[in-house]
UniProtKB/TrEMBL annotation:
Coiled-coil portions: none
UniProt GO cellular component terms: cytoplasm
Biological process, per Gene Ontology: methylation; RNA processing
Similarity annotation: Belongs to the class IV-like SAM-binding methyltransferase superfamily. RNA methyltransferase TrmH family.
Domain RNA 2-O ribose methyltransferase substrate binding as annotated: residue spans: 14-84
GO molecular function, one term: RNA methyltransferase activity
Keywords on record: Methyltransferase, Transferase
Signal peptide per UniProt: none
Protein name, UniProt field: RNA methyltransferase
CDD domains assigned: SpoU-like_rRNA-MTase
Length: 241
């Protein structure tokens, strides 16, 4: 299993499983080394075509490296893509996550953002590592296709995008407008979503131009990934959005 701190220090991450490895290569990421067992080599001969160093490993080693109960025996060491928030286009569409700690939720949000044609995702340091194994699996490799920006000052970035013409919306309950009442400005969009336990911080909410809530029945709230996906689809994912 990869250690997040070590991976960050080395600016590398490990993709496990043939689909993630092939997706990483197909997305143009810098792949340095691919490791596979004899069984994996015979089952997926396309691994031999990957343009990087290739090393065969034993089944016991694959089991040690794997974070899954039934490993496929395929691993790739890749360079992390680097994106600076200065590159974020204020005319683009972004999903911003504040301290969403569940890897499954972060992965699901990234998958929806890529599927709905969003320009990128903005994550705070309190979010699950977008290049961690659980997020990679939950995102189905979406992180290879979607720029992921990280910031310790989400409120400041939202204010900056808003000053440049983007519509900035915070998902919350208090003082919120019904989602059906929100009208898109036609320019850029930044949607901010917090974790299930605490929601968004007061500072992030104050940095947005409006607060939006999803009209629901029976339940008090939605899972963070579900809420983010509904908002992305309704406000940015529709063809006429």
């Amino acid at each position: 299993m990869q250690k997040p701190a070590f991976c960050r220090a080395e600016n590398r991450f490990v993709a496990e499983g043939v689909k993630l490895c092939l997706d990483a290569a197909g997305s143009g990421l810098a792949m340095e080394t691919v490791y596979y067992t004899y069984k994996a080599e015979k089952r997926w001969p396309q691994l031999l075509e990957l343009p990087c160093e290739q090393l065969r490993i034993s089944e016991p080693v694959a089991e040690k490296l794997s974070g899954q109960k039934t490993p496929q025996g395929v691993f790739a060491v890749c360079r992390m893509p680097e994106f600076g928030l200065a590159e974020a286009d204020p005319a683009g569409r972004y999903i911003a996550l504040e301290d969403v700690q569940d890897p499954a939720n972060v992965g699901a949000v990234l998958r929806s953002a890529a599927a709905f044609g969003f320009s990128g995702a903005i994550l705070t340091p309190g979010c699950a590592d977008p290049f961690g194994q659980k997020v990679l699996r939950a995102s189905m490799g979406a992180v290879f296709k979607l720029p992921v920006f990280e910031t310790a000052d989400l409120a400041g970035e939202l204010r900056r995008l808003g000053a440049q013409g983007a519509q900035t919306l915070a998902a919350a309950l208090r003082g919120a407008q019904d989602l059906r009442e929100i009208r898109r400005s036609g320019g850029g969009l930044a949607l901010a979503v917090g974790n299930e336990g605490n929601g968004l911080s007061a500072e992030v909410i104050a940095a947005c131009s409006a607060v939006v809530r999803i009209p629901i029945r029976a339940m008090e709230s939605l899972n963070a990934a579900v809420a983010a996906s509904v908002l992305m689809w309704e406000l940015g994912g529709r063809r006429d959005g």
